[in-house]
Amino acid sequence: MRTPLMLLALLVPASGALAQADELSKLKASVVQVFTVSQSENYARPWQRPRPSRSGGSAFYIGNKMLMTNAHVVSDAKLLKVKRADQADKFAARVLHTGHDCDLAVITVDDEKFWAGMEPLEIGPRPKLQSTVSTIGYPMGGTKLSVTKGVVSRIELHTYVHSRADEHLSIQVDAAINPGNSGGPVMQDGKVAGVAFQTQFFAQNIGYMIPPSVIHHFLHDIKDRQYDGYPELGLYHENLENPILREYLGVPKDQSGVVILKALPYASCVGHVQRNDVLHAIDGFKVQNDGTVKLDGELFALEFVVENKHVGDSVTLTLRRDGEIKEVQVTLKHWDVPMSPSIFYDQRPQYLILGGYLFVPLTTNYLFQSRGPREELSYYMQQFYRSIADDGEEREQLVVLSRVFPDSSTRYRSYSNAIVSGVNGQVPRGFAHFVKLVEGGSGDRIRIDLEGVNVAPLILSRKQLEKVQPAIMKKYGIPEGRYVKEPKQDD
Predict the structure, then answer these.
(1) CATH class as words, domain 351-483
(2) Which of 178, 186, 199, 208 is buried most, with the most CB atoms less than 10 Å from its CB?
(3) Is 408 one of the catalytic residues?
(4) Which of 72, 97, 100, 217 is catalytic?
(5) What pTM was computed for the model?
(6) Are 53 and 86 a contacting pair, CB within 8 Å?
């Protein structure tokens, strides 16, 4: 998967570096090559899938018959095999748990022969700046285990490319983590110092690894055999570097913090904070005027305070509200937003065809795959969390009229990528509710209103839709006219 700046590493680069004989022997048994046949979903044409593709990566043994790798190595996998360097056979594998937000996964092999003589690698401490690490994995074009060495050059919060939305701690190294190193361990002093997972695009020797803290968070999360993901504090805030703003909010000169604009809908702080609250501290950590906190002698974005917390844990906010200091206890929860900005994997896209009209929920997957101008749709998604999804609003997910199939029964000009604003006078809360409104209304007519003052509504006839849809689907080779997830009970 590519972005303008980053690439996920799917195969390990060649290297001539050698480890000591005893350590290398252990690594040959404990670091395995992963072979993946995957088939991603087509969100622009959700009734069809592209051809399966082959890719690969690395994984390493962490004990209890579990191999750790990257989520993007096994996402949308239809066939998964692994191979040890000290064995000739490939073994069928299966995914146990996947964390798309932290780009980690654990897989296993059911054949007992695979595990013979394999020793788990121990997760070590976070490496220090300017210390040396070794990346271990399997190079493209070869079958031998490869070892490269590099220096830790930066430790900071970074966007994880796999989801395109989640930001966690990452470690930058100058070891060769080119497209292909995914899932391999990064070693220091015989222990795992991180997992190689992405690289800087159009840059030389700038790679990134997932640090031990994120690895431990993932492993702790799956102890109950279910992955809940990272909780989200969910605050829109602005810095308090402006002295006039500080005076207006009544912040003394010897105190620092940020001003809260609003709580992100569906996140943890909804109902706990108010607009113009000043956040002075989180769990006792002082918030600086630029929105950072100091942890272990280094400045991080304030959201990093909850980086090592889990769903259900609590956090204490020290707020200034109307001139008074108060402490607010917040229980952390996963960001269960219906219209997630993250990329979806391992799930089928929803859609509905009405006659010659294709309707889909607005997702980031659709934004990347749809044809034609997408700026307006992207704007709507960005504004969704600031306005449309405010507390008390009806809409939780936006529905798009994706395309119109040319037919004598359809009007197919100017309706591509149009946002649905209403069905028979009602605002659809989400895609399941949209389908319910369309199919559950009385009478023959369906009125679908679209965003924009210059866009006429669609007036559809149920009888005509029933008549023309089979012929349209046959003409355009569409085998199935819909896929809709089971709606929630309150839909």
Answers:
(1) alpha beta
(2) 186
(3) no
(4) 72
(5) 0.89
(6) no
